Amino acid sequence: MTQTQNGTGTNWKNVNNWHWVEKNCMPWAKEYLTKELTGTAVESGDCKVSVEEVRDVTGDVDINQRKGKVITIFDIALTLGWTGEGYGTTASGKIVIPEYMHDTDLDDIVFDISLDSPNADREKIKEVVRKDLTKVVREKLGKFAKDLVEAHLKDVYIAPDEMKGHPVLQAYQPKPPAPGDAKPTASKGKEGVLGGLTTIKQTIEFVASSQDIYETLLDKQRVQAWTRGKADISREIGSVFNFFDGNISGTIAELVPNKKIVQKWRLKTWPAGHYSTVTLDLNEGRDNTILKLTQSDVPVGEKDITENNWKNYYWNPIKAAFGVKASRASSAKAKGSPAPPTKKQRLDENAADTPGSSPPSTPVQTGKASAAEIQAMDVNSFHKPFKNPRYAAPKSVKKLKQLASADKALDIPMDVPTYWNIEAPPSFLPQKKYCDVTGLEAPYTDPKTRLRYHNADVYQFIRSLQPHHIQTYLELRNAAVNLR
Question: What is the CATH architecture of 8-162?
Fold first, then answer.
């Protein structure tokens, strides 16, 4: 129940005995009552009676604690076997206590006494049991609640001298590196000298050309698309970049077009002045591009957070915002297409993105992304299939009253739904659901955020959203949570 920290016994299981704690003590009660009552004897004149055995103990026995107050709750029934000797004979029988509760007064305990093979002399022995033996049994039952608390108090209640306060973890202060291995990037932060450093390596596959990935990571408009916020970045070596309201910042150290990007990169929470070195190598294959990330000089305590941030705030949003669309748009430009895709082409692209579709078979090489190309890759600009592009509003629209009057004039069976027949049978077709992010058909719903999604890429993007972004998407469907 207790644990030791820094040599001091401390119990963090139920601080200040605030929470309700309950323990079932019925097995202990059976053993206790059998031990205490068996052998209880009384003598009256020449007659001696005693409790020979405890035959049965049934009911519930609990000890509870809430806000430092210990409470015993029990409701039990007992059956005792007794024997007696006197008046020239012997007698035996049983004593039944139908109910003994935590709030029962001792004088109110009921004893049902029975006699085996009764006669006049044995009735006298039974009378001794009723008058004298029951008094002794009452006294022993009166100690039951007190002994119950003493036996089990430590299991539900933490004594004040064992309560040392809330645990406070000491700040991590690793040993400084040896002089020969000291790194120039190590600096002093809030916790003193920076501790050990480590390296992060990741490999990510994109179904797009290396040119697309290179532009997606360096083009300001594209960066603002997948970060969903203001971003500052340029292609000049030595220039400063800034993402996510300053939470990620750094400088461009080296650029090899479509091949390599090297940055001095840091999180806002890192010690002041400390930067890691991020190297992004792009290796283009036949129908994909492999991005290899190497990030050195990462503080040991920040490794897990940094690894998750690359996945949740870089790779997943990039795939959700562009995916294979970047490769197709670049392919169109490489072939000399002078205009952005038409609505029909966008609809065809959306249909091709359903599970089972195949990516482009060969990589493409493109130039700098144009505004039209970026707009074509914007998921919000795609045509939504639930909107009919050929729909045109009629010149004259009949009002509901006119339609109802026209329906009444026709000889229509009652089982056919009309504008005025409110008893029309409901449709047996399932209601269609659409993705909250892309507008495509959504066969899935995320149980945590309640957002509907089209495929696995959209799901990964949804799991990276902040709570206020999730509420914004739900508001568009009138499904947001309104707290009042």
Answer: Super Roll (3.15)
